[in-house]
Amino acid sequence: MIPFIVRRFVVLLLTLLVVSVLCFALPYLSEADPARSILRARVAELAIDADAVEGLKARYGLDRPLPVQYASWLGNVVRGDFGYSFTNRMPVGDQIGSALRVSATLALTALAIAIIVAFPLGAVAAIRPGGRADNVVTFITQSLVALPEYWLGPLAILVFALHLGWLPSAGWLEPAHVVMPACVLAFRPLAYFTRVARASMLDVLNAPYMTAARSRGLSVARSIVAHGLRNATPPVMTLFGIWLAGLIGGAVVIEVIFAIPGMGRLVYNAVVNHDIPLLQAGVVCIVALAVAINTVADLLYLALNPALRASRHAG
User: Fold this and answer.
1) How far apart are the C-alpha atoms of 51 and 43, rounded to whole Å?
2) Which end of the chain is least crowded, N or C, by CB within 10 Å?
3) Residue 157 buriedness (CB in 10 A; 0-12 / 13-18 / 19+)
4) Which residues contact 181 (CB under 8 A, 6 or more apart)?
5) Within 13 Å, how many C-alpha atoms sit on residue 115's CB side?
6) CA distance 250 to 273
7) Do residues 156 and 183 make contact, with C-beta atoms less than 8 angstroms apart?
């Protein structure tokens, strides 16, 4: 197991190094002059004074060779210093930290809703494969995957905020603001969690020890609670890690629709405003967090799966 952990951390470090190079090169890959991008983020004029551009290059060290700029930038990033935003002149690290907390809260709430609903649905579908309940659950999960968030979000606002008045339509000020976007965001992972839970429980129900348990008079429901949920947990938790990594930085549509100040909306605004430091920091943090979460999820799956752990030792 130790060699596996070492390999994963080596891959993690190499991935972060490649991502850092790409993020640093963002303003150059777009064929835009970084100094002009700074000025455009601050003034809405197309005609920019050449002396101002040269002054900004000297001030921010943009006139130095690219390897020197990258080394200086990477050193600051490792220390947690992402510089200042071009648009609001505030420290980028403070904005990233605040947005990460919001996105993490939204993503964890959505995934918790998805898991709480997915396990019972998967169990009901697995009891009688091909039966009416299984067909209904399959239809529901396939429908949820097909429903786009940019349609579900406005529909939820129309029904639950404007028509019924049960929930606030937008913002991030109180717990009630989390409910509607989290529920909308939970639909798609719910479909995948239900499928994985159903498949895992089918394997468990067909296992010899489950047949022996039922022969001793244990009901199907109690068998699922005693054995099925425990054995279905590792694959679902691995999928949980993948979805958590994706939702923290990938819930752009939901965060824009519901005016949530999370990472997705922060990066979106950075792109719109040509705010290079904010964009670079946002992408680096999202990718680093995604790689770290996936690595932890793989290690947890290895720890929870004795058969896989034994095969790693044998290898």
Assistant:
1) 15
2) C
3) buried
4) 106, 110, 153, 254, 255, 257, 258, 260
5) 19
6) 19
7) yes
